[in-house]
Each structure stands twice: as structure tokens, then as C-alpha cells.
């Protein structure tokens, strides 16, 4: 799919994977709208071709307004990349007692329901655009995690939310096929982003040592490259792609 003279919406666009993707899309000529929480945007750098839009992915009205901004940019909204997410960890039963239900609900609310909210509302706007010469109107890329498959100790909430994103991918592609909208999901392994900032250097090294090849953590730019490859490749649809250097995570 062509990116020049189109608009793109990237959630979580102020940091990490979303920021790298927003920059890469802008470099390819898209008019990029990076949706993020106000606090995230306040700390984000200025990037040529990227306009920040403050919204919470879990809030239907805020997302509707952000989508309208992207869709009203004078060029058709064609690309959506869902990167907003959080990754706290807590054991189901641990020293601090039973897993906090509010935390479980919050992770699912942001990572899964937020992704669905943006996907649904953005698809409505994309469906209203003129199709290209191949009958295509747009592509939506979601972000799961390899924790959807190999969730570690303490990742019950996170893995549940990401498993939901994997499960959403095929029915979303099927639902939206009639509008010429493709849906794919990327399941990254461990990527060097601010989400990993709290992890000690020692733990980071041990994480990298567990990756068969390349024996290092992934880079946000590698995620962006895959997101753009999905956008470019018209026959990729309804699939979740692992990007993990063959890493299969152990229980801890
Ligand atoms: N970094 C990794 O190793 C890794 C691995 C697998 C999957 N992921 C997934 O990739 C995505 C991006 O992660 P990252 O590492 O770039 O994290 P990050 O913390 O650098 O960026 C996430 C962004 O999402 C935003 N955000 C959080 N809640 C939001 C909300 N309710 N509404 C709008 N924006 C919100 C944050 O403000 C932040 O800017 C997440 O879904 C994460 O689960 C990351």
C-alpha cells in the first residue's frame, strides 16, 4: 500500500515501538498522528511529519476525536498501528497475597480493550475513504507479545491481554475484509524500549543471552521495519508474526 499522501495513526506514538514506527511512517511520506497520553506527549521529542494527539486508548470519545483529527487531515487515513500498552507484573498468588483484580482489569482494559477500541473506531473512518486501485482502503497493525504464547511467572494479566490481541486478529481481518482493510499483529520478543527501563543491567544481559540469534535485544526500529513491511505487503492479512530472534521464554 502506498504511504505518500495518506494519513497514519500510531497509538503509544510518544515512546518506544510507537515512536519508532511514527518516525518511519513519516519518513515514508505519511502524515502521522501519534496518539498517546498527555504525560507521554509532554516528554516526547519533536519529529518531522509527526503530530501528537493526546488521548487515552480506553476512552471511546477521546479516541473518536483523535481518529477524526487523523481522518480530517486532507489525505485518506490508511494506516493504524496500535502500540499503546503497559506491562506490569504480579503473581496470581505471591508474598503480597492474591493478584489485585483492579490491576488485572487495567492491563486488559488498556492492552486489549484499548486496541479493540482504536481498531473499531479507526476502521469506521478508513471504511469511508475511497479505495485504491486494488480495492484496498487500509491496514491495521496491532501489537501483541511473545508473552501471548510463552507467558512468564508474574505475567498472567499481561499474557491474557496479549493473547486477546492475537485472538482478535483473524476475526478482525475477516470482519473488515469487505471494506478492503487488512489486520495483522506483531508479537515482539524483548525490545530495547523505555518499558524495559526499570530492568537491571544484569537482568537485561541475561535476557539477551537467552535469544538464539541475534544474541541481543531487538531494536524499536526493527519493529517499525516489520510494521512497514506489513503495510507494504498486500497479501499479509489475519496473521500474527513473531519478531523474537527465535526466543521462547522460560517460566522465569
Ligand atoms: N518493549 C518490549 O520488549 C515489548 C515486547 C513485546 C510487546 N511489547 C508491546 O509493545 C507495545 C509498546 O511497548 P513499548 O516497549 O514501546 O512501551 P513504552 O512504554 O515505551 O510505550 C508505550 C506507550 O503507550 C502509552 N500508553 C500507555 N497507556 C496508554 C493509554 N491508555 N492510552 C494511550 N497511550 C497509552 C505510553 O504513554 C507510552 O508512550 C506495548 O503494547 C507492549 O506491550 C513491548
Automatic annotation (TrEMBL):
The keyword Oxidoreductase applies. One of its GO terms (molecular function) is oxidoreductase activity. InterPro entries: KR_dom, NAD(P)-bd_dom_sf, Sc_DH/Rdtase_CS, SDR_fam. Keywords: Oxidoreductase. The keyword Oxidoreductase applies. Coiled coil: none annotated. It comes from the Bacteria. Residues 6-189 form the Ketoreductase domain. Pfam families: adh_short. SMART domains: PKS_KR. Belongs to the short-chain dehydrogenases/reductases (SDR) family. This is 3-hydroxy-2-methylbutyryl-CoA dehydrogenase.
Amino acid at each position: 500500500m502506498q504511504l505518500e499522501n495518506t494519513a497514519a495513526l500510531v497509538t503509544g506514538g510518544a515512546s518506544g515501538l510507537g515512536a519508532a514506527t511514527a518516525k518511519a511512517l513519516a519518513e515514508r511520506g505519511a502524515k502521522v498522528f501519534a496518539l498517546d497520553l498527555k504525560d507521554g506527549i509532554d516528554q516526547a521529542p519533536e519529529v518531522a511529519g509527526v503530530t501528537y494527539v493526546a488521548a487515552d486508548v480506553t476512552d471511546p470519545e477521546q479516541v473518536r476525536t483523535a481518529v477524526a483529527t487523523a481522518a480530517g487531515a486532507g489525505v485518506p487515513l490508511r494506516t493504524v498501528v496500535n502500540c499503546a500498552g503497559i506491562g506490569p507484573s504480579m503473581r496470581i498468588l505471591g508474598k503480597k497475597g492474591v493478584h489485585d483484580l483492579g490491576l488485572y482489569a487495567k492491563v486488559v482494559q488498556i492492552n486489549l480493550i484499548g486496541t479493540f477500541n482504536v481498531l473499531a473506531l479507526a476502521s469506521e473512518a478508513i471504511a469511508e475513504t475511497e479505495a485504491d486501485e486494488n480495492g484496498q482502503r487500509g491496514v491495521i497493525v496491532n501489537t501483541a507479545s511473545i508473552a501471548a504464547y510463552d507467558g512468564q511467572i508474574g505475567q498472567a494479566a499481561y499474557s491474557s491481554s496479549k493473547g486477546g490481541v492475537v485472538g482478535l486478529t483473524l476475526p478482525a481481518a475477516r470482519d473488515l475484509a469487505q471494506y478492503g482493510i487488512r489486520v495483522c499483529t506483531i508479537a515482539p520478543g524483548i525490545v530495547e524500549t523505555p518499558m524495559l527501563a526499570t530492568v537491571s543491567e544484569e537482568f537485561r544481559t541475561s535476557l539477551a543471552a537467552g535469544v538464539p540469534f541475534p544474541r541481543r535485544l531487538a531494536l524499536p526500529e526493527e519493529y517499525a521495519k516489520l510494521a512497514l513491511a506489513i503495510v507494504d505487503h498486500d497479501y499479509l492479512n489475519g496473521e500474527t508474526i513473531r519478531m523474537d530472534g527465535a526466543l521462547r521464554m522460560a517460566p522465569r
